[in-house]
Amino acid sequence: MNMQQAIKMTAAETALVDAYTAQIGDLPGDGAVLSLRDTLVHELKTAGLPTRRVESWHYTDLRTLLRAVPSADPSAFADRVEPIVAGSTVLSVRNGEADLKSLPEGITARSYTESLLDGSAVAGLAVLGSDDAIGRINVGLVRGGLEIAVAEGAELEAPLEIQIVQSHGQAHTRFPVSFGAGSKATVIERHLSTNAEASFVSSVTDLTLGEGADVIWIILQQQGPADTHLGQIRFDLGKNAKLHLFVINAGGKLVRQELHGRASGEGADLTLRGINLLGGESHTDVTFTLSHDVPHTTSTEIIRNVVFDRAKGVFQGKILVEKDAQKTDAKMSCNTLLLSDEGDFSAKPELEIFADDVQCGHGATVIDIDHTQLFYMLARGIPENKARAMLVNAFVAEIVEELEDDETLVEALEGVISAWLAKHA
Amino acid sequence: MLEIKNLHARIAEDGTEIIRGLNLTVKAGEVAAIMGPNGSGKSTLSYILSGREDYEVTEGEILYNGESILELDASERAAKGIFLAFQYPVEIPGVATMQFLKVAMNEQRKYRGEDELTTPEFMRRVKEAAAELKIAPEMLRRPVNVGFSGGEKKRAEILQMALLEPKLCILDETDSGLDIDALKVVADGVNALRSPDRAVVVITHYQRLLDYIIPDTVHVLYKGQVIKSGDKTLAYELEANGYADLIEAAA
Q1: Which residue, of A289, B28, B175, B198, has the greatest Cβ tally within 10 A?
Q2: What is the C-alpha separation between A358 and A322, in angstroms, rounded?
Q3: pLDDT of B246 higher than 90
């Protein structure tokens, strides 16, 4: 133990490094994968988890906030759950183990463990930068996940639900997903826990949308009240590709969901919608970066937050418009309904524009219940507590309704929201 | 049905007195028109009757069916049968019109100790009332008042009134912003609700609406007081001569 250490490790850092050490020889991977794991865990050991001094982690000091990490339990078992939208195709990953089954035409999947073992995964394992703590932890400890391909021109009739179910302990998963040219799909990436025992979860999704692909991707995070969820989704939008990315946080104690993407083909369009339902003593961070790389790409981002109790929330959104990306149209807004004096929300929208012919804007608001609307509802005989609950629900349900083409999906998501509000409001 | 005695009220926030010793009695079955120049306190009166918390009653009494309502909040007054048709109906994005109607109807029923409506029964009532008021089903599929034109909003108010079956209906400037066809539809809706056990208070700036909803009594409000009461001919006098003479006589 004469290796030089820059820092004194915290309990959580020690637990993560120990989890790696304990699994050496058991973690899947070919030589290149294993050596990358080793390098990244070594970095974690020397640099530690990011603190507020790292700009992208300023509002989520992971080193201080992550007080403990439960140890991995190879015997953990979690049941499959019913999909959120009846009739969905379900692929489940339970306590990190993928469960494959027959899939409808146009879609293929294989266990990510195999991609690690044969080394084909290695190119996709690169971290996004020195501040990519999620990437580092995930690559160090990932055991499984799914590699999914939607064929060119395929139009999936039923939604695909990727179910990541955790009972306790740790799970580190990865999901590279490619959508062929002209394909159309709705996918629900659903993270949930079956009980209140602590889980530590990291998950990285990597989407590639081919020309003209039209995808709705929903990240529904419903972890338990003691869970840590570190999620990351990366996406690359080809020519005329359309991605409607929807993030709903309705659980977890310490949550960071990162979204990093680029519009790399002309005509690409991103719609980002986020709903953060925050209560208790939780800390939830949504961090988004989008790079408009080429001309004629568009994006709109709307984040709605509801804050109860002593919950803390963060939204960081950064839109980068490259020099060549003329005619970019990007609009970002973050609106917070702050319902507790002890709650807290930090919003940091940023635009970095190098092109000169673009339309970009951003705004952030913090509001209370609208008293005129409240009086109107009371004047119709709706009692005050019920009227308030309906208005809070309306504040977030409004953006779910944009998915009106799929009524069962809208109903399912509204159900998640109203169930959460019934418990917390 | 409604007895207002020596009512004094002010804006809670800055203490400005708006209602200054107002007396008014409206009997069951009666349609009472309240007229008056801008700033006389007409809309304030409607808000105070329906229980808006931005106003404070400092003196006097409001009796509804012989009972004081001053201690009841707006939702309790509504459940007891007081309905305000808003001058500016409020848009509520994210709340579906049908859900809003159903919750309102059932919450009122719950308050009164009645059974909730079944969904088919609720649907039947809405469909019927909407057809009467020429409200298209598409309108009912939108969020409350969102994207409605001025006339649609007023018709939606009357639809709510018809469904909630109140005992005391207060119409605050329901004619504002309506063309003559829309005005007729709205007036027909109100007239259909006239009954011996229901009272209607029509607040209006102009006499025009009273050609379609014929009042039993007319009361002129000025500086927070009723300065003159009469029958429907008073409205015609006002239309012909304006408020100036009356105000002078009262001064």
Answers
A1: B175
A2: 11
A3: no
Q: How far is A366 from chain B (nearest CA, A)?
A: 17
Q: Which residue has the higher pLDDT, A412 or A1?
A: A412
Distance in Å, alpha carbon of A275 to nearest chain B alpha carbon: 14
Give dist(CA A420, CA B211) in Å, integer: 52
CB A170 within 8 A of CB A144: no
| DSSP-assigned letters across all residues of B82-136 | EEEE-SSPPPEEEEEHHHHHHHHHHHHHHHTTPPPPPHHHHHHHHHHHHHHTT--
Tell whether the model's pLDDT for residue A1 goes beyond 60: no
C-beta atoms of B75 and A401 within 8 A? no
Looking at beta carbons, which residues of chain B come within 8 Å of A375? 52-53, 74, 90
Nearest Cα of chain A lies from the Cα of B216 at a distance, in angstroms, of 26
Terminal-to-terminal C-alpha distance of chain A = 52
Residue A342: HSE in the Cβ half-sphere, 13 Å Cα cutoff:
9
Percent of all residues in chain B with a pLDDT value above 90, rounded to a whole number: 77
**pLDDT above 60 for A3:** no
The ipTM assigned to this model is: 0.96
pLDDT over threshold 50, residue A2: no
* Helices B97-111 and A384-400, axial angle in degrees (round to 10): 160
Asked if the Cβ–Cβ distance from B75 to A373 is below 8 Å, we say no
Output the six-digit token pair for B192: 């259909």
pLDDT tens for each residue of B161-189 = 999 999 999 999 988 888 888 888 889 98
Strands B217-222 and B31-35: parallel
Nearest CA in chain B to A401: B94
